[in-house]
Amino acid sequence: MELIELQNLFEKAILDKDETSRQRLYQQIKAPSNLSNQDGLAIYNGSIFAQLIQTLKSIYPVCHSLVGDKFFEGCANIYAQNNPSTSPDLGDYGESFPQFLAEFKHAQSLPYLPDVAKLEWHWHRVYIGLDSKMLDIQALGKVPQENWGEIIFSIPENSILIESIYPIHRIWEISQPDYEGDEGVNLDEGGIKIFLWRQDYDMRMDFPSDEEWYFLQALSKKVDFGEVCFELERDYPSINVGGLLPIFVQRGWIESFTINE
């Protein structure tokens, strides 16, 4: 049997639980003398899913802490059984776990849990993502004023805008191992808008005002500045774009720019 055929057969036997594939695979493997072929395959099966569950624990430590080890392992096992890894990098695994939690009937009493999971997933991806850049202020200063409307400003590529009707930032904060302080969370206090990004080696969870949020959303579309101003003036006429732009530059919320020619 060709290696690729054997690998595909192994995948179907483990992940699809296909009995025909398992019987064919048994003919191709030789278990130790103290194990049957079925027992040998079961060891592989257990090892694979144990690793996936451990990966979910490492990516979603706050969710793990909130629901406890037994509950988390139970739902993670169900997720892993139905969502095998499709990447050689386990850092890519678990993106759909927040949606799974939203639909998981046993987690319905924790309506904030999927949004906490979204925050954790994006924290994980931003943390391992690309380094942010510094805006070239000198190059920006050389752009003629008549061409400013053609500038396309970019927020950090490795960033995400997260919005929730729950105070997920507080839930995340009090669940950190080194947290000291008031552990109370009022789920009725209202939602939160989060700009999550990484500045050098520092993870940043910033909380924009409503005006800043709308400006960030407009910039994230990567359209020219003239269109950004038109859109904001139309939908949010109270926003002072001219006042916000230098603030964004100072904070590092604008990473680069191009000219739309």
Which features does this protein show?
single chain, about 260 residues, mainly alpha, Outer Surface Protein A, domain 3, 2 domains, three-stranded antiparallel sheet, two-stranded antiparallel ribbon
What does this entry look like structurally?
This protein has 261 residues and is mainly alpha-helical. It has 2 domains: 31-128, no CATH class; 130-261, Alpha-Beta Complex (Outer Surface Protein A, domain 3), CATH 3.90.930. The protein contains 12 helices and 5 strands. The chain has helices at residues 3-14, 19-26, 37-59, 61-67, 69-82, 97-103, 113-127, 137-141, 168-174, 210-220, 225-235, 241-251, and strands at 151-154, 159-164, 192-199, 202-206, 256-259. The strands form 2 sheets. The protein has a 3-stranded antiparallel beta sheet with strand order 2-3-4, sandwiched between helices. A two-stranded antiparallel ribbon has the order 1-5. Strand 3 (192-199) and strand 4 form a beta hairpin. The longest helix has 23 residues, at 37-59. The model has no long low-confidence stretch (mean pLDDT 90).
